Amino acid sequence: MDNVITYDVETSYPYLDDDLQIDQRTFEAMWRLFCQIKDYWQLSVPETGVKSQLLVFMQNRIKIDLNYYADYKNAAKVIRELTYQLGEQAAYEKLFTDPSANLQPPTTHLARARQRVSNEFITLALAVGGFKTFGAKNALGFISGGNIKGQTPYRTIEEA
C-alpha cells in the first residue's frame, strides 16, 4: 500500500524515520551505566526484565525528544573517555558525583551525560523497584500496588 495517506498522522519529527533505534554498542554502555547506578546507590532492582524496560524507556525518550538519541551516544562516549582516564570505578563515581556536572544549563558533555541520562536512569531504577531500598514494603513502581490495611507501602501518619 504505497498510497497510504499519512499527512494527518501525528509525528514528532516529520523528516525522520519513526523507527530510529539505538545501536547495540550504545545500548550495552547504557545497560552498564544502569547497573553501576544500581550498585553505587545499592538499589534493590529486580534481576529479570529490567534490561528490556531500560530499552523501552530509551526508545520512548527518543520518540519524545530526538535529542536523547544524541545524549545516549554522548553518555557512552563520556563513560569511555572517563574510564580511559580514571579507570572504571572512578569514571562512574565522577559521572555520579562531580559538581561541575550539575551546571545549568548542561552545556558540557559530562553535564549532559549526568543530567539527561544518568539522573533519568536513577529515576527509572527507583521506579522499577529501587523504592524497596528505602523501606517501602510493597513498592511495585510509582503506583506502589494495592493500599491494603496492614501492608501500606509507605509510612502512615500513625507511624510518624
Any overview of this molecule?
It is a single chain. The protein is mainly α and 160 residues long. It has one domain (24-159). Helix content is 51%, strand content 0%. The protein has helices spanning 24-40, 50-64, 67-86, 88-97, 109-127. The N and C termini lie far apart (63 Å). The model has no long low-confidence stretch (mean pLDDT 82).
Summarize the structure in short.
The chain is mainly α.
Record keyword descriptors for this entry.
single chain, 160 residues, mainly alpha, 5 helices, 51% helix, globular
β-strand number = 0
Tally of helical runs: 5
Strand content: under 5%
Main sheet specs: none
- Cα distance spanning the termini: 63 Å
Helix-strand pattern: HHHHH
Provide the number of structural domains: 1
Write the layout of secondary structure elements.
Blueprint: H1 24-40, H2 50-64, H3 67-86, H4 88-97, H5 109-127
Helix pairs in contact: 1-3, 1-5, 3-4, 3-5
